[in-house]
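Problem: given the chain below (201 residues), write out its structure.
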Amino acid sequence: MFAVSLGDDGSGLHPLEPWQAEEFLAHMDRGREFIGQHIGLADAVTDLESSRSFLRSYADKAAADTGRIYGIRTADGTLVGGVLFRTMDVPNGTAEAGCWLEPAAAGRGLVTRASRVIIDWAVEERGIHRVEWLVSSENTPSIAVARRLGMTKDGVLRESFPHRGKRLDREVWSVLAPEWRAWRKDKPATSGSGTSGPARP
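Solution.
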């Protein structure tokens, strides 16, 4: 078992695996309504079997090198959120990143710090050239994360995402590898912001 520190507050980034399905479901139950406002994860993970199936799908993606998932834990080990690469196309150098968080853990910069770790890894270790961030136009906290990560808004996919009976606009944000390296050079990690070099989740 390994972890990547996310800063002096004791938080860390940890792998999420199928054997943790019960804990993952309990985490989802705690934050279901908050998490489910803008993304389908809360509606996909509703019982132990669906929790195990979801985590198994990412274990399969990791084995095929087409996706990854990591949990964000507080200093006491509580699972409070996560970040992922929903897709990874290493041959073509593209990946789509995403995130979720319990309401009790919001406002601490955890998602930004965790996203920074996995984007560093994707760009510096895996040679990913373009990292995308697809987000509902109504999800202002996630849009704020994209901005804090130095991403550029590429455009809006109008009513492209059906969610809980509505069709939502989805914004496409992205950062290219040279842009990421320049942004990282201008914004080196500081205390509470994780490691300064490329991380290896």
